[in-house]
Here is the input.
Amino acid sequence: MDEVGKGLGRRSLLALAGVGLLLGGCASTAPSALYGLTAPDDIADGRSRPVQVLVPAPRALKALDTGNIAVVDKGPAYSYFPQAAWADTLPNVVQAKLVQTLENTGRLRGVGLPGEGLLIDFQLQTDLRSFELNIDGPDRAVVEIAAKLINDRNGRTVASRVFTAVVPAGGTTVDRAVAAMNRAADQVFREIAVWVLDKV
Here is the structure.
């Protein structure tokens, strides 16, 4: 598995990433490594809720609405790890893991995706604000998701909240970056699930 930026400074990482993207037109753009996210399955037990929750794909700016793994410096300025990508577009990966996290609680009657034909009680709408390796200062993973819980019966907002986690990455290789983003996302997914269960 290729690693990017091993032993290199922050600026070298950005330069390498930029060169990788520029060379994409001259060579195969298929990544040599695909990365996924884990979903927490250890959320504390509690009473079940006889409701069904719809989880649409998160909204995101173009910088994050991609399969590329983002690296962010001052500005913010976005670049991406060459030869590495998420297993799908980032919003789709996050959507799948939010669904899995809510299902793992075992405390909802149903959790579904748009188009599955479920009779929905609530919608969990989300926005990806940050999902990246941030190198503006200490190398760290930053995951920030704004969530809104909507009563699907009347369209009213039940609650809204921004969930943020920052985890030290300990380096700028793609493996370290993804591992740190996984830990940060795990924290955010867990907090979102607990919040949803408290509000429905």
